[in-house]
Amino acid sequence: MKCPFCKDKESETSVLDSRPTEDGSVIRRRRVCGSCKDRFTTLERIQYREFLIIKKNGDKSIFDRDKITKSVDLALRKRPVDFETKEKFISKIVRELEGMGENEVSSSVIGEMVMQGLYKLDKVAFVRFASVYRDFREAKDFEHFLGSIDKN
Fold it and tell me: Collapsing DSSP states into helix, strand and coil, what is residue 63?
Protein backbone atom coordinates (compact mmCIF):
# COMPACT_ATOMS: atom_id res chain seq x y z
CA MET A 1 0.00 0.00 0.00
CA LYS A 2 1.27 3.46 -0.92
CA CYS A 3 1.98 5.73 2.06
CA PRO A 4 -0.14 8.94 1.90
CA PHE A 5 2.72 10.94 3.43
CA CYS A 6 5.96 9.90 1.72
CA LYS A 7 4.23 8.30 -1.31
CA ASP A 8 6.65 5.35 -1.08
CA LYS A 9 5.20 2.40 -3.00
CA GLU A 10 8.12 0.08 -2.26
CA SER A 11 8.02 0.20 1.53
CA GLU A 12 5.64 -2.10 3.36
CA THR A 13 3.02 -0.74 5.72
CA SER A 14 2.33 -2.59 8.94
CA VAL A 15 -1.09 -2.93 10.54
CA LEU A 16 -0.98 -1.77 14.16
CA ASP A 17 -4.64 -2.26 15.03
CA SER A 18 -7.78 -3.61 13.32
CA ARG A 19 -11.31 -3.23 14.56
CA PRO A 20 -14.75 -3.64 13.04
CA THR A 21 -17.13 -0.69 12.87
CA GLU A 22 -20.60 -0.04 11.47
CA ASP A 23 -22.24 -3.32 12.36
CA GLY A 24 -19.18 -5.24 11.15
CA SER A 25 -19.45 -4.07 7.55
CA VAL A 26 -16.24 -2.00 7.77
CA ILE A 27 -12.80 -2.81 9.14
CA ARG A 28 -10.79 0.17 10.41
CA ARG A 29 -7.03 -0.41 10.31
CA ARG A 30 -4.31 1.76 11.87
CA ARG A 31 -1.16 1.43 9.80
CA VAL A 32 2.42 2.63 10.00
CA CYS A 33 4.69 3.24 7.00
CA GLY A 34 7.90 1.22 7.03
CA SER A 35 9.78 4.05 5.37
CA CYS A 36 8.76 7.34 7.05
CA LYS A 37 7.14 5.78 10.18
CA ASP A 38 4.04 8.03 9.90
CA ARG A 39 0.71 6.51 10.92
CA PHE A 40 -2.56 6.56 8.99
CA THR A 41 -5.96 4.89 8.97
CA THR A 42 -7.56 2.84 6.22
CA LEU A 43 -11.14 1.62 5.97
CA GLU A 44 -11.98 -1.68 4.30
CA ARG A 45 -15.57 -2.13 3.06
CA ILE A 46 -17.41 -4.89 1.30
CA GLN A 47 -18.41 -3.92 -2.21
CA TYR A 48 -21.34 -6.06 -3.24
CA ARG A 49 -21.73 -4.92 -6.82
CA GLU A 50 -20.83 -2.13 -9.18
CA PHE A 51 -23.52 -0.09 -10.85
CA LEU A 52 -23.70 2.98 -13.04
CA ILE A 53 -25.07 6.39 -12.17
CA ILE A 54 -27.08 8.21 -14.82
CA LYS A 55 -26.45 11.93 -14.41
CA LYS A 56 -28.94 14.70 -15.22
CA ASN A 57 -27.22 15.37 -18.56
CA GLY A 58 -27.44 11.67 -19.54
CA ASP A 59 -23.78 10.83 -18.92
CA LYS A 60 -23.03 7.62 -17.06
CA SER A 61 -20.31 6.94 -14.51
CA ILE A 62 -19.46 4.18 -12.06
CA PHE A 63 -20.94 4.72 -8.60
CA ASP A 64 -18.45 6.29 -6.19
CA ARG A 65 -19.25 6.24 -2.47
CA ASP A 66 -16.75 9.05 -1.91
CA LYS A 67 -18.95 11.49 -3.84
CA ILE A 68 -21.82 10.92 -1.41
CA THR A 69 -19.38 11.17 1.50
CA LYS A 70 -18.04 14.53 0.30
CA SER A 71 -21.55 15.94 -0.16
CA VAL A 72 -22.71 14.74 3.24
CA ASP A 73 -19.50 16.00 4.89
CA LEU A 74 -20.11 19.43 3.40
CA ALA A 75 -23.74 19.48 4.53
CA LEU A 76 -22.82 18.31 8.06
CA ARG A 77 -19.82 20.62 8.45
CA LYS A 78 -19.80 22.12 11.97
CA ARG A 79 -22.97 20.23 12.89
CA PRO A 80 -23.25 18.04 16.04
CA VAL A 81 -23.16 14.71 14.18
CA ASP A 82 -20.35 12.30 15.08
CA PHE A 83 -18.25 10.29 12.63
CA GLU A 84 -19.91 6.94 13.42
CA THR A 85 -23.42 8.32 12.85
CA LYS A 86 -22.37 9.88 9.55
CA GLU A 87 -20.71 6.65 8.37
CA LYS A 88 -23.76 4.58 9.30
CA PHE A 89 -25.97 7.04 7.42
CA ILE A 90 -23.83 6.81 4.27
CA SER A 91 -23.52 3.02 4.52
CA LYS A 92 -27.30 2.70 4.81
CA ILE A 93 -27.78 4.66 1.58
CA VAL A 94 -25.15 2.58 -0.23
CA ARG A 95 -26.71 -0.69 0.98
CA GLU A 96 -30.15 0.48 -0.20
CA LEU A 97 -28.71 1.37 -3.61
CA GLU A 98 -26.95 -1.98 -3.91
CA GLY A 99 -30.09 -3.75 -2.70
CA MET A 100 -32.14 -2.24 -5.51
CA GLY A 101 -30.48 -4.74 -7.84
CA GLU A 102 -30.34 -2.25 -10.69
CA ASN A 103 -27.40 -1.93 -13.08
CA GLU A 104 -28.12 1.79 -13.53
CA VAL A 105 -29.47 4.29 -11.00
CA SER A 106 -30.45 7.90 -11.64
CA SER A 107 -28.50 10.54 -9.73
CA SER A 108 -31.83 12.08 -8.76
CA VAL A 109 -32.75 8.88 -6.87
CA ILE A 110 -29.53 9.16 -4.86
CA GLY A 111 -30.08 12.87 -4.20
CA GLU A 112 -33.58 12.23 -2.89
CA MET A 113 -32.36 9.39 -0.67
CA VAL A 114 -29.68 11.65 0.83
CA MET A 115 -32.19 14.47 1.33
CA GLN A 116 -34.70 12.19 3.09
CA GLY A 117 -31.98 10.83 5.37
CA LEU A 118 -30.57 14.26 6.19
CA TYR A 119 -34.07 15.51 7.00
CA LYS A 120 -34.26 12.90 9.76
CA LEU A 121 -30.62 13.30 10.84
CA ASP A 122 -30.11 17.10 10.91
CA LYS A 123 -32.47 19.76 9.54
CA VAL A 124 -29.71 22.33 8.95
CA ALA A 125 -27.66 19.80 6.96
CA PHE A 126 -30.83 18.92 5.03
CA VAL A 127 -31.35 22.57 4.00
CA ARG A 128 -27.65 22.95 3.08
CA PHE A 129 -27.73 19.84 0.89
CA ALA A 130 -31.06 20.78 -0.68
CA SER A 131 -29.84 24.27 -1.57
CA VAL A 132 -27.08 22.75 -3.72
CA TYR A 133 -28.99 19.69 -4.95
CA ARG A 134 -32.11 21.63 -5.97
CA ASP A 135 -29.92 24.36 -7.50
CA PHE A 136 -31.81 27.38 -6.19
CA ARG A 137 -31.34 30.34 -8.52
CA GLU A 138 -32.99 33.08 -6.47
CA ALA A 139 -33.86 33.78 -2.84
CA LYS A 140 -37.56 33.22 -3.56
CA ASP A 141 -36.80 29.63 -4.64
CA PHE A 142 -35.15 29.08 -1.28
CA GLU A 143 -38.04 30.72 0.58
CA HIS A 144 -40.57 28.57 -1.28
CA PHE A 145 -38.60 25.43 -0.42
CA LEU A 146 -38.35 26.36 3.27
CA GLY A 147 -42.08 27.09 3.35
CA SER A 148 -42.84 23.67 1.89
CA ILE A 149 -40.78 21.80 4.51
CA ASP A 150 -42.38 23.75 7.36
CA LYS A 151 -45.73 22.27 6.28
CA ASN A 152 -44.34 18.71 6.64
Answer: coil
- R_g (Cα) of the chain, nearest Å: 19
User: Helix, strand or coil for residue 83?
Assistant: helix
Alpha-carbon distance of 6 to 138, in angstroms, equals: 46
The model scores a pTM over 0.70:
no
Name the residue range of residue 88's domain: 49-150
For residues 121 and 145, state if they share a domain: yes
Distance (Å, rounded) from C-alpha 70 to C-alpha 128?
13
On whether the CB atoms of residues 46 and 16 are closer than 8 A, the answer is no
Confidence class for position 54, pLDDT limits 50, 70, 90: very high
Phi, psi of 61 (to 5 degrees): -145, 160
Residues 103 and 54 in one domain: yes
CA-CA-CA-CA torsion sign (46, 39, 70, 10) = negative
96-107 mean pLDDT? 88
